[in-house]
Structures are given as C-alpha cells and as structure tokens.
Amino acid sequence: MSHTITLNGKIIQDIRHNIGYPSHEKSKYERERVRFSHCLFLTQDKNILTYQTATPYTIVRISEPTDIKIPYPLAINLEPVLIENSPSINLEIPDCTFATLQTFNNTDRPEYIKTNDLKTNVVMLGNYKTNLEYLNDMQEKTNYMNYLMNCKIDYDTKDNAKQYDWDKVHLCNLADTLHLDYTKPYYIKYPLSQQTELDKYAMSKILQQVSKFGYLYRTVHDEDYAEKTLKIPVAIFAKNICLRQMTALIIGRIKQNEHTK
C-alpha cells in the first residue's frame, strides 16, 4: 500500500532547472554539505502549495492554490528523476516510508531516536524511484530560504543590478523557470539554459525584469582577523502566471575588495 499525492508536473518540470548536481570532483563532505540543492522542497499553508528549490546562489519558489494536502513538509531528491511533460505527476509514498515520515515529524519523538537513525527512504515520483531526504539540517535550510525570501534588504535602484557580475548559468536557469522574455522573436529556438552563450542583449533583457534589487550585509573576518562587512547584491524576480505566484532570488558575486568597512 502507498499514499499517493498528485503534484503539478509542469511546475516540477520548470523548477528542475534550478537544482544542483553533485560533482565527483568535490569531496564527500562538500557533496553532503550541498545535498539540499538536489531537492524539491514542498510546503503547504492552508490551500497554497509551494514548490521550492535552492542552491547556494539561487532560490526559486512557485506557489499555487490546490485541493490536495501534503501530510508534512517534504524534501524530494530530483537528481535521478526525468520529468515527463505531463500536467500532473504522482508522488507515491510507501506505507513503511510514511511511518518513518510520521516518526521524523513527531513533536513527541523520543530523545533516543536521532535524526541520523532515520535513513533516506525510497519513493516514486512519476515512473522514477527517488528519495525522500531526511536532511539533518532540512529545517535549517527551509528557514534559510524563508529568511532570504523575506529578509530585510537594503533596496537600491533596479538599474544598478546591471553593474554586477551574475552567475550566467543560474541566471539562464531562472529565466527559463520564470518564462522571462529575454530574446528577440527570431532568436527563440531553444531554452536559454541550453544555449552555449548568453549575449549582452539577452543579459540586459533579463535584468530589465528584476522586480527588486538591493544588498544584504554579512560580517566576516579576514586572515588577519580584521572585521569587515560584505555588501552582497541580491536580485529578486516576481511574476504571476495562471494563479501561480512565482518568485526567484539570485545572489551576485561580490566585487573584489568591496566591503563597507
């Protein structure tokens, strides 16, 4: 027996652009540290279901009204899943996995049951086996995503977003996910993320659609233990398409030696 939840296949197909992939050149520690970036996070607030992905540099969040109900916040590993072009896709959670999920989310969970004891469980997403991730820091990552999406940003003129060095791969993925207008009509052949180069025209068109631009400030210490505050550029995109609220955030590269102290 299993619990079946019907999800929006189009949103999953779109949002998958933003997931990270593990590099075999990275250490085991590094792969584990960024494991959250392979996941689709599902959360629900009343009748609003939110699909969310996060890498160390970008966050994409798409929300829509729904009649379904997910039992708990879920982190689904999308790395092994090939999303089919379907309006809906089923997530099947076996009974044994569901029981572990209940234990993991039980506020009265005995102290002797550690999160490390709750191993990754296999589920089916469409026709593909994948994992529900019981990340030890899942709540921390979810809180971090919510913090960035709702944090206090020192907003600046949107035109100033054009002066920063944005990661082109992440920017292309966000443009495809949010269906941003970035090309002249005769350019449209492939998704931007599949093109070999991002020309200045396309980059300019993407940055014209920034909804808000500003800065986060982070205090760090250099090799001499001197304190300095980094000024981190942040661009936010927001759209509403077919009752879906689509929001994306990208963190820019800090210019060399740029800090406020």
Provide structural commentary.
With about 260 residues, this protein is of the alpha+beta class. Helix content is about 20%, strand content about 35%. The protein is built from six helices and twelve strands. The protein has helices at about 10-15, 30-35, 95-105, 140-150, 170-175, 200-205; strands spanning about 1-10, 40-45, 50-55, 60-65, 75, 90-95, 120-125, 130, 155, 210-220, 225-240, 245-250. The strands form two sheets. It has an eight-stranded antiparallel beta sheet, sandwiched between helices. The chain has a four-stranded antiparallel beta sheet with strand order 1-6-7-8. Strand 3 (about 50-55) and strand 4 (about 60-65) form a beta hairpin. It is globular and about 55 Å long. It starts with a strand and ends in a 10-residue tail after the last strand.
Q: In terms of topology, how is this protein built?
A:
Elements: E1 2-8, H1 9-15, H2 28-33, E2 39-45, E3 48-54, E4 58-65, E5 74-77, E6 88-94, H3 95-105, E7 121-125, E8 128-132, H4 138-150, E9 154-156, H5 168-177, H6 200-207, E10 212-221, E11 227-241, E12 244-251
Antiparallel strand pairs: 1-6, 2-3, 2-5, 3-4, 4-12, 6-7, 7-8, 9-10, 10-11, 11-12
